[in-house]
Write a structure and sequence with these properties.
Blueprint (H helix, E strand, L loop, with lengths): L5 E6 L3 H16 L3 E2 L8 E6 L4 H13 L8 E5 H7 L2 H5 L3 E5 L7 H9 L5 E3 L20 E5 L1 E2 L10 H5 L3 E2 L2 H13 L4 E5 L16 H9 L6 E5 L8 H9 L6 E3 L7 H7 L5 H12 L6 E8 L6 H14 L3 E6 L17 H24 L5 E10 L4 E6 L4 E5 L11 E9 L4 E5 H8 L6
Parallel strand pairs: 1-2, 1-3, 3-4, 4-5, 5-6, 7-10, 10-11, 12-13, 13-14, 17-19
Antiparallel strand pairs: 8-9, 15-16, 15-18, 16-17, 18-19
Helix pairs in contact: 8-9, 12-13
The structure holds iron/sulfur cluster.
Iron/sulfur cluster binds next to α6.
Length: 451
C-alpha cells in the first residue's frame, strides 16, 4: 500500500521531456511529496509520455494496464505528449487515470494536484500548447553538473510524419535576457555544462530583439564565466546557418558535436516528408561542419520505410551514410501517427520490408562507428565524469564530441563525478570507448599500478 505523499515518475521520449520531468519533480517536491523508486510504493504514479512513435505510446498503456486492478489508494497521472494528443479519451482507455496534463499546463500542476488531493476523480490540464511554459519556478534538476535550459518551445514546421506541432504547439522563443540570467545563475551554483533545448533551436528568434538569432544567442551563452561545455539540441537542417559553425569555431566552450537529423538521403523522400531541404542542401551543411577548425562529431536521425520510399531511395540513404560517416545515428521504422499528413500518402512500405531496410542501415552504421571509433585509439580526450560503474570498476566519462569514454583512474582518486579528466583511449567499440586517465597511465608505466 502506498504511504503518505509519495510519487513515482517515469519519463519517456526526448530531452525536452526529461527536462519537463525536472519541472514536475520540483513542483511535487515543493508540494510536500517525496519521490520513490517503485510505482507500488507511491500514492501518485505519473507517466510523462512521448507520442513520436506508436511504440512509445503503447508502452504507457501497458504500464497503466499493470495497475488496472489493485490501484486502490493510488492515483495515476498521464502527462506530456500523449496527454496533449489524446486528452480526455485517456479516461476511456484507462478509467483508473485521475489526471491528464499536457506540457503547456505544468505551471498549473499545484492547483491540479490539490484538486486530486481533495478527491476530484477526473482532473485535466489541457490548454492548447501555445502559452509560455519555459520554466516553472520549481524546476528540480536531476544532474548536479549538466543542466538543460529551454530556449524555444513548439515547432512551426510541418514534417509529414511528426506529431510535435500538434502536441507542443506553435514556436515560441524565450527572451534572451531570461535565458542568459538562468544560465548565469546555473554557472554560479556550480553547473559547468548547459544544454540549450528546443524542438528546433536553429529557428530561435529573440522576442526582445537583443540577440538576432540562434548563433548570436549561442555566442552570448558561450561568454558566461564558469561554463566549460555548452551543447544544443535539436537542429533542423533548413535553419542551420553557417554562422553557427563560425560561433563554434570562435568559442571552444561550445562542444565539438552537432546533431543534425537528416531523416532520408533521397531528395524525393525528403520532399514527401516536407523537410524543406534537399540531399544537396544537407550535404552543404555537413561540408561547413567538416570545414570547422575543430573536429566536430556528427550525429543524425533516419526514418526508413516512409510511404513511397523505393529501394532506390533507400540506397541513397545508405550512400549518404557512406558520404557523411556519422559518429552515431538514431534510426527507426516509419510509425504512422494520428493528426499527421503522412497518413494520406500512398505507397505504404510493408513492415517486413521496412524491417529489412532498418537492419541493413544499422549494420552499415555499426561498421562505420567501429571504424571511426577505432581511429581514436591512442588519442587524448578531456571527459566530464558522469558516474562510476561498480561492476567494471570504471568511471563513465563523456567527451566534448559526446562519446562515452569509460576509463580507469588510480585507486584513491576520490569521487571524480562532475570533474574533468584527461583520458587516453585504449580500446574502441561501436558505441563507446575505453581508456585510462593520464594519471593512471603514468602510474602503470612506472610499474606502480595494478594489473
Ligand atoms: S522540425 Fe519537423 S520533425 Fe522536428 S519537431 Fe518540427 S515538425 Fe517535428
Amino acid at each position: 500500500m502506498p504511504h503518505g505523499k509519495t510519487f513515482y515518475l517515469e519519463t519517456f521520449g526526448c530531452q525536452m521531456n526529461v527536462h519537463d520531468s525536472e519541472k514536475v519533480v520540483g513542483t511535487l517536491t515543493s508540494l510536500g511529496y517525496s519521490r520513490v523508486d517503485r510505482p507500488e510504493e507511491a500514492s501518485l504514479v505519473l507517466y510523462n509520455t512521448c507520442s513520436v512513435r506508436d511504440k512509445a505510446e503503447q508502452k504507457v498503456y501497458q504500464r497503466l494496464q499493470q495497475f488496472k486492478r489493485g490501484a486502490r489508494g493510488r492515483r495515476f497521472a498521464v502527462l506530456g505528449c500523449v496527454a496533449q494528443q489524446q486528452g480526455r479519451r485517456i479516461f476511456e482507455k484507462a478509467p483508473h487515470v485521475a489526471l491528464v496534463c499536457g506540457s503547456a499546463s505544468y505551471s498549473q500542476l499545484p492547483v491540479l494536484v490539490s484538486r486530486l488531493e481533495s478527491g476530484d476523480q477526473r482532473v485535466t490540464g489541457l490548454e492548447p500548447a501555445n502559452g509560455e511554459a519555459f520554466e516553472t519556478s520549481f524546476t528540480r534538476r536531476d544532474n548536479p553538473h549538466r543542466a538543460y535550459v529551454t530556449i524555444i518551445e513548439g515547432c512551426d514546421k510541418s514534417c509529414a510524419y511528426c506529431i510535435v506541432p500538434f502536441t507542443r504547439g506553435k514556436e515560441r522563443s524565450r527572451a534572451s535576457g531570461s535565458i542568459l540570467e538562468e544560465v548565469r545563475s546555473l554557472a554560479g551554483s556550480g553547473y559547468t555544462e548547459v544544454q540549450l533545448l528546443g524542438q528546433n533551436v536553429n529557428s530561435y528568434r529573440d522576442p526582445s530583439g537583443e540577440c538576432a538569432d540562434f548563433a548570436a544567442l549561442l555566442a552570448s551563452v558561450a561568454l558566461i564565466s564558469g561554463l566549460r561545455r555548452v551543447r544544443f539540441a535539436t537542429s533542423h537542417p533548413r535553419d542551420f546557418s553557417r554562422s553557427i559553425v563560425d560561433v563554434i569555431d570562435a568559442h571552444p566552450v561550445l562542444c565539438d558535436h552537432v546533431h543534425l537529423p537528416v531523416q532520408s538521403g533521397s531528395t524525393a523522400v525528403l520532399e514527401r516528408m516536407r523537410r524543406l531541404y534537399t540531399r544537396d542542401d544537407y550535404l552543404r551543411r555537413i561540408e561547413w561542419l567538416k570545414g570547422a577548425r575543430r573536429s566536430i562529431a556528427l550525429t543524425s536521425d533516419v526514418i526508413v520505410g516512409f510511404p513511397g520510399e523505393t529501394e532506390k531511395d533507400f540506397e541513397q540513404t545508405l550512400s549518404l551514410l557512406e558520404e557523411v560517416r556519422f559518429d552515431s545515428l538514431f534510426s527507426f521504422k516509419y510509425s504512422p501517427r494520428p493528426n499527421t499528413s503522412a497518413l494520406e500518402l500512398d505507397g505504404r512500405v510493408p513492415q517486413e520490408e521496412a524491417g529489412r531496410r532498418l537492419t541493413l542501415l544499422q549494420e552499415k552504421q555499426r561498421a562505420i562507428q567501429i571504424q571511426r571509433n577505432s581511429g581514436l585509439v591512442g588519442t587524448l580526450h578531456e571527459v566530464m565524469v558522469e558516474g562510476f560503474n561498480r561492476p567494471t570498476g570504471q568511471w563513465i566519462g563523456r567527451t566534448s564530441q559526446n562519446r562515452v569514454l569509460n576509463f580507469l583512474a588510480p585507486p584513491g582518486s576520490g569521487s571524480l563525478a562532475g570533474r574533468y579528466v584527461e583520458v587516453r583511449v585504449t580500446r574502441a567499440g561501436p558505441n563507446s570507448l575505453a581508456g585510462e586517465s593520464v594519471e593512471q597511465a603514468r602510474i602503470c608505466s612506472n610499474g606502480l599500478g595494478g594489473s
